[in-house]
Amino acid sequence: MNALKQNTNFKWLMRGGVISALGDQLTMIALPWLVLKLTGDTLALGLVIALMSIPRAVFILVGGALVDRYSPKRVLMLTKYVNAVLLALLTLLVMNIASAPTVALSSSLSLTVAISPHLALQLIYVLALGLGLAQAFAMPSGMSILPLAIPADNLQAANGMMMGIRQVTMLIGPLLAAGLLAFAGDGNGGVSNAHGLALAFGFDCLSYLVSAWTLAKVTLLSAAAPSTTDAKSQSVLRSVGAGLRMVWDDVPMRLCFIYWGTVSLFIGGAMQVALPVLASQLHGASTLGLIMGAHGAGTLLGMGASAKLGTRLRFASFGAMILTADAIAGILLAPLGMVQAVWQAALLMLTLGLLTGYMQIKVFTWIQQRVPPQMMGRAMSIFMFIFMGLAPLSAAATGWILTLVSLSQLFLGGGIILVTFAAGAYLFTPIRSIASTTP
Question: Does the pTM exceed 0.90?
Fold first, then answer.
């Protein structure tokens, strides 16, 4: 940790990461609120979210290939400028809606120039699509730059610090957004009183410009800088295929990715639907905030423990650690649907978050240390596609399943499935023997 604190690259990455993550949290609060205040239509809100999510999932593999072709720093820098432009346009759009300017045609005649709500919504759709596309390239480049800028010995601590900081911004950001909207106007009187939304988008725009400046200060390690000759000689689709082939040919990575994909398909998306339903059965929206806050706090503690303890907590192997953690998570999930008080749900979610945060650092560090630098973008994009592409499928199916079974049965079944998957993988696959380190 002391060596990491003296690392210039890490300092610049951390500063830019904090600023950009806070800006992202403001937009995550402000954009849905803008759509609801503008239309009052949940279908429009769902479409905006879909326009951001679907392109991200579809193009993230292409993003990973371009990261390896042009280097993560170049791609990440470009996405920051694109995001800044899109958010600047969104800021101007909200300012136009909030205060329609009056243009004087003559001394006795004036014309109010304003964008209609329908046209504003269409523009929001376009900007949301652009933000989703930018994320498809920003995410693999952001996850790939750390192992190319930080010495391998400091990578686990760096992952822990960066992910921990992001988790802190996920707790602070919504509070900052709420305060900003309350101070400057949140649209409660209609979108004409939405100057706070414009400030939120404007702050996010500025955060991308500042984080682009900090990123320019980062110098990739010469020994880790990817050789892009082969990547540039291939088409993008061939480059994506080469990444998939690399993961498939690496047997331990193939086994882990298949296992994680299976868990995400059957369990991951289901929890995204089941937890809000659980909150509604207990007390309501405030309960969801409490239990998700408990999970977030646990995740932060787990990340901190992983970064601080490093390799001092040892398992028999990396694979055994994954399967043990999933088995414990299944045991914690099973009774979640039977809780009678908010504190019981919060305690279970806190423990789950602690486990999740600790394992996230271990998994990301294992992948980053295993993959060659010139394939890092594609490997990370495939890893993220597993969760972005498969979890929504199970989320869609869960709504139908809940018409057939009770919530307690869903959580109990999910916990049993997760324990069964972990036990089956331990008994019948080589995952349990996958090593924590890679030659």
Answer: no
